[in-house]
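Lab notebook, bench 4. Still working through the backlog of constructs that have no structural model yet. Next entry is a single chain of 198 residues. Request: give me the structure tokens for it.
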Amino acid sequence: MCFFAKQLVESKVSNNLSLNVEERNLLSVAYKNVVGGKRAVCRILSGMDTCEGSVMDKYKQMIENEIKLTCNEVLMFSNLFAFFLAESVLKLASRQKDDAEVFYLKIIYQKSSECYEKAKACIKENFRATHPFRLGLALSWSVFCYEILKDPENAYKIAKEAFDAAIGEIETLNDQESILLMQLLRDNISLWTQETTE
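Model written out:
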């Protein structure tokens, strides 16, 4: 079912269409069932007596990684539709002759900012500054501020803060994904430094 839901989302995105209520429910149920099943397996494996490094331990790790991949896929879809929605609203607003664009931008920013702050607090509490989740959130939010909200100063501040925090914990960096995310943050900081100083 996840495969079908994924194909549906990819088809909609490639045609610049959004999901209707039934399609959103299908996507939600498909991924919820997959993750729920894998979580049940993890609970069973956690209750079993296994020694570190055993086959069961490795199997549990494999299932946990599959859960992460599935959740990241859902987050990617959510980001695609959030950007699609924001761009659609801004295009509609820019065709109007009044202050509609500012109005819609303000709504998008307020709601997005609330979600970002909640995610940031949760991630900051649970993950090191070099963790891919934390770096990825900062990268996504800074790019959103730059590209959608047209706020290069805030984009720069978010990216710089995340990059500096990660540099402060560089000894904990051993993940290739984290290295790539730090490079992207650094590249954006360089680009946005030029724009904010001009």
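Notes after review: The mean pLDDT is 78. The helical segments are 2-14, 21-47, 55-95, 100-126, 132-147, 152-168, 176-197. Flag for follow-up if needed.
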